[in-house]
Amino acid sequence: MPDIVISEFMDEAAVDLLRADFDVVHDATLVDKPEELAAILPTARALIVRNRTQVRGAVLAAGTKLEVVGRLGVGLDNIDVDTCKARGITVFPATGANDVSVAEYVVCGALMLLRGAYFASAEVADGGWPRNRLMGREVMGHSLGLIGFGSIARETAKRARALGMTILAHDPFLPDDHPVFAEYGATPLSLNDLLAQAEAISLHVPLTDATRGLIGAEALKRMRPDAVLINAARGGVVDEAALAEALKAGQIAGAMLDVFDREPLPGGGPLVGVPNLILTPHIAGVTVESNVRVSGVIAHAVLGALKERA
User: Fold this and answer.
1) Catalytic residue selected from 183, 263, 289, 309
2) Across the strands, what pairs with 144?
3) Which of 29, 129, 264, 290 is most buried, by the most CB atoms less than 10 A from its CB?
4) CA–CA distance from 142 to each of 29, 124, 199, 201, 246 (Å)?
5) Which pLDDT belongs to residue 284?
6) Is 123 labeled as catalytic in the residue annotation?
7) Which residues touch 162 (CB under 8 Å, ≥6 apart)?
8) What whole-number distance in Å separates Cα of residue 53 and Cα of residue 34?
9) Distance between CA 286 and CA 5 in Å, rounded?
């Protein structure tokens, strides 16, 4: 029976590092087999997951010997952190290891959505030539609004400024005179002012009771009609039905979603057939390079914790 269970994909070199000292089960299909996962957890001292494995309820009940949970990413909304803390289970996120990947995704999204020419492949292949209709905007000279100004947002600001964008930022946990705004060339604004002014808006907040549904019908009404929205943070922050209606009505110009209230999407929901919408499968923070970094950070953290408690 294993010492370490890994229920989602992880870089094999990092898995081999763990195998050198411990008995490891690495099966990326376990995330979709909760009964099998529960059956092999009773001996496990560590569980390593990404964002889909729900580390709560039955999983924590089965993992009676768990000492460590490694999160191959940064968000912890799939982990019952309070119960882990009460049981003395240390939770390790891979803080900082995928910041660059997400920042590049966001900047790419702003470029694609503001330019607006990347939805026409089928039309062009079929003989259409919509040059006038697809005359989009450069990002240079336009504004990027960042809701939340943590490490990923700061990496995004750095790259967007290099392209000539103006940076607006809102973070309720930072005073307007915090030096980080000046360091990254960002103008701090209230949420409502940012929504009203920014031409591209990107979300960089965790999913909490305060942020669930943050971008709903009222927030979307405050946005400019030529504005675009990018969410590579957490799905529940955006009201998907309200966004779909706003895009269908031409209330905003476009959106790019990498995260959803339910993952994978069940199909047939409000996001089907919506114009000017790009959907990706929670992949913003996952590149070849970031997978190596994230996996290495968690492997070393888990190894260190288990050896320390041996």
Assistant:
1) 263
2) 167, 200
3) 290
4) 43, 28, 6, 11, 22
5) 98
6) no
7) none
8) 9
9) 21
pTM: 0.94
Q: Which residues pair with 167 in a beta bridge?
A: 144, 186
Q: Which two tokens stand for residue 167?
A: 């940076």
Distance CA 248, CA 276 (A): 9
Please confirm, yes or no, whether 170 is among the known catalytic residues: no
**pLDDT computed for residue 1 by the predictor:** 85
Query: How far apart are the C-alpha atoms of 150 and 15, rounded to whole Å?
Result: 29
Q: pLDDT tens digits for 32-66?
A: 999 999 999 999 999 999 999 999 999 999 999 99
How far apart (Å, rounded) are the C-alpha atoms in residues 188 and 22?
48
The answer to whether 294 and 73 have CB atoms below 8 angstroms apart is yes
* Segments in the chain below pLDDT 70: none
Structure token pair of residue 24: 């490891």
Task: Take residue 31 and report the two structure tokens written for it.
Answer: 């995330």
Place of tokens 């089907």: 272
50, 204, 282, 293: the catalytic one is: 282
Is residue 26 flagged as an active site residue?
no
Interatomic CA distance for residues 120 and 127, integer angstroms: 11
Q: Which long-range contacts (CB under 8 A, 24 or more apart) does 151-154 make?
A: 151/95, 151/96, 151/99, 152/99, 152/102, 152/103, 152/204, 153/202, 153/204, 154/180, 154/184
Question: What is the three-state SS of the chain?
Answer: CCCEEECCCCCHHHHHHHHCCCCEEECCCHHHCHHHHHHHCCCCCEEEECCCCCECHHHHHHCCCCCEEEECCCCCCCECHHHHHHHCCEEEECCCCCHHHHHHHHHHHHHHHHHCCCCCHHHHHCCCCCCCCCCCCCCCCCEEEEECCCHHHHHHHHHHHHCCCEEEEECCCCCCCCHHHHHCCEEECCHHHHHHHCCEEEECCCCCCCCCCCECHHHHHHCCCCCEEEECCCHHHECHHHHHHHHHCCCCCEEEECCCCCCCCCCCCCCCCCCCEEECCCCCCCCHHHHHHHHHHHHHHHHHHHHHHC
Burial of 249 (0-12, 13-18, 19+ CB in 10 A): exposed
